[in-house]
Amino acid sequence: MPSLRLALAQVNPTVGDIAGNAAAVRRWTRRAADAGAQLVAFPEMMLTGYPIEDLVFRESLVVASQHALRTLAADLAADGLGEVAVVVGYVDADGPAPTSSAAVKGSGRRDASALLLGGEIAATYYKHHLPNYGVFDEDRYFEPGTALTVVRFGGVDVALTVCEDLWQAGGPFAAARRAGVGLVVNINASPYELNKDNARLPLVQRRAAEAGATVAYVNMVGGQDELVFDGDSMIVTAGGELLTRAGQFTEELLVHDVDVAPTPSAPPAPPPA
């Protein structure tokens, strides 16, 4: 069974400071590499900060996010970190800039995750479930993704998911089981609530069981306006075992060796008739 050394970068991005957030990814990836990590995951919308709210209506912000992602992939390789898989959140788009909230539908604004490797954007994923309750108003800003992204790394198929995808049964985690992945990386901007840390572990355990795979859950820390993010990142096996867990309200690099189910090799092709 292959083993991957995972690093969860529980860090504090700043809304709008794309250059500073990208620099933080490079610093923390260096720390992860120095610890021998093969894959490091950063929080939801790491490059732009979260929540960006009406900044999503600015074409310049979206273009800057997309450009920063491409530049970051190249910079990581130039730093000698091209062999480390880096999962990072950003804002993407596949349509023209909206001029108002009423025009968002069809504009293709996406809450996205990308896996960077070898100086390239190896894979991207668009968040499926957009929360629209409590402090969340994501249905106003984004369009949902519809496809599961799976990338093979270190002999293991890895699925990418984002935050609210974890809270919904029968979504990307069920698709991950059908795809036979060994690891699901879930990046988050999950605000603090009283006793929410008590709810997270059972939730991650349910999704790990649903996916039949280990789940690496990374959350941001810090504050933005009225929201406070408490971290509480963790890694949970398909059987529900908590392998490691970060603290709350502190930046931290959580590093752990994880045994994951290998991706079955394709059967040999039959000989020609």
Question: How are the SSEs ordered, and which strands pair?
Answer:
Elements: E1 3-10, H1 18-34, E2 39-41, H2 59-78, E3 85-93, E4 109-117, E5 120-126, H3 138-141, E6 149-153, E7 156-162, H4 172-179, E8 183-188, H5 196-211, E9 214-219, E10 221-224, E11 227-230, E12 234-236, E13 242-245, E14 252-259
Parallel strand pairs: 1-2, 2-3, 7-8, 8-9
Antiparallel strand pairs: 1-14, 3-4, 4-5, 6-7, 9-12, 10-11, 12-13
Helix pairs in contact: 1-2, 4-5
What does this 3D model show about the protein?
A hairpin with a 2-residue loop joins β10 (221-224) and β11. The protein has 5 helices and 14 strands. The protein has helices at 18-34, 59-78, 138-141, 172-179, 196-211, and strands at 3-10, 39-41, 85-93, 109-117, 120-126, 149-153, 156-162, 183-188, 214-219, 221-224, 227-230, 234-236, 242-245, 252-259. It is globular. The strands form 3 sheets. The chain has a 6-stranded mixed β-sheet. A 6-stranded mixed β-sheet has the order 6-7-8-9-12-13, with helices on one face. The protein has 273 residues and is an alpha/beta fold. Mean pLDDT is 92; it is low at 266-273. It has a single domain (3-259), classed as Carbon-nitrogen hydrolase (Nitrilase/N-carbamoyl-D-aminoacid amidohydrolase, 4-Layer Sandwich).
